């Protein structure tokens, strides 16, 4: 799981924009808690935001840059071979087809980046017909014919024309004919017709994605007259007027943001104005499915600059459209959730880079209460329910880590923790309290324990030990030091992987030791004690464990008899 799904802001969102309240997907009715850790919701916001606001307004104030753009496309040997074969097909059958590679491949090649995403636009036939000719030519050459995959029209996934796909020299190539699009009012599904290369370029989302590489002439074609210029300027703009472009397909707003963040490009002023338009925002909330919005957010948060992407979403007034909140929230909403979200994301991003390695790899609520983090992921973004559950568990574990960090650093809460672990049958030796307590937390959260530790270090003030006397870099260094120290302590306690530890006795064996004929709560409590005993005695054997259980049971009975007399 990547960083995009694990940061605190997702669990802190509480307010649904009135403009889009009626557009929120309708899950089963429930009350919604404001955080993944409802019993301490207020602590989530007590971390000093002043330390994490260096990017406030960043998206709006980004300066245009000069981007190094190559004069021509340099083909790899693989690409040369593929394109030569396609031209052989055209010549052999006298098709007269102009073959153009479209979109992102051209952009990335001109930026000096590699790309395996080859989409070829055809000017006089369908993709399926051309793929059939490729196979005919292969047969003529005595070569194996390849299967042809046809992706049918699917407007809900922005597939307005049939696309054919086939494997050529080990690379999947998509083929589609050039097209023009006309949108009817109140619909984002266009009427699609076969078009010219210029019409196809003009109907694309962004100028930097409207470039073609003509395979026949081996040249770059900028048919909008602005693609190369905007690429060199590092400018994100639309080939046609931005507002009409966004109203035709409002998802293009999020695509513009995603590419601006990916390349650290500037959003054009007219594009920003159009993206902030109330009608465009309303159309984004009503026309576009939550699945498609969630997919775009997923791509943004998986990319190189997720903080920049959220800055744009916030500054363009799209935050409460993209992250649609539930209607009823407890406790009441706080102001500036969009700013809090970006600030926390930046803090987490900086801390993760400061630590210098990935920590992002792999509850306590009643049935009538669902944390907002779960609501956002399940319903607003339509991502995996299992991801939502994992994130809620991470937030719950992060609070327990706050207590563990204090224990590992200062022993300040040693007696309190020991009291929680001890009962009439089991007393944890003082020098093993840390191992047992940490082990129990790790067994709950398993492979995501570093993420929970990371969030705990970032969020809880008593852990982060933020001070007004510390500058931003000092606070970052302090959090980094704390994270590394606790991670090292857990490793030295030999607890990494402790969730794989198997109990020495199963429920049936425990029933035998206790001399009872049926299970129930009693056996469940002994299973919990058994885990604690094993954590305190990592080298203990099954026989030693059984002997401890018998002695503990006998001692408890004697104490009860003494008390009764």
UniProtKB/TrEMBL annotation:
Gene3D superfamilies: Beta Polymerase, domain 2, cca-adding enzyme, domain 2. This is Poly A polymerase head domain-containing protein. PANTHER family: CCA TRNA NUCLEOTIDYLTRANSFERASE, MITOCHONDRIAL, TRNA-NUCLEOTIDYLTRANSFERASE. One of its GO terms (cellular component) is mitochondrion. One of its GO terms (biological process) is tRNA 3'-terminal CCA addition. The keyword RNA-binding applies. Residues 99-236 form the Poly A polymerase head domain. GO terms for molecular function: catalytic activity, acting on RNA; nucleotidyltransferase activity; RNA binding. It comes from Triticum aestivum. Pfam families: PolyA_pol. Belongs to the tRNA nucleotidyltransferase/poly(A) polymerase family.
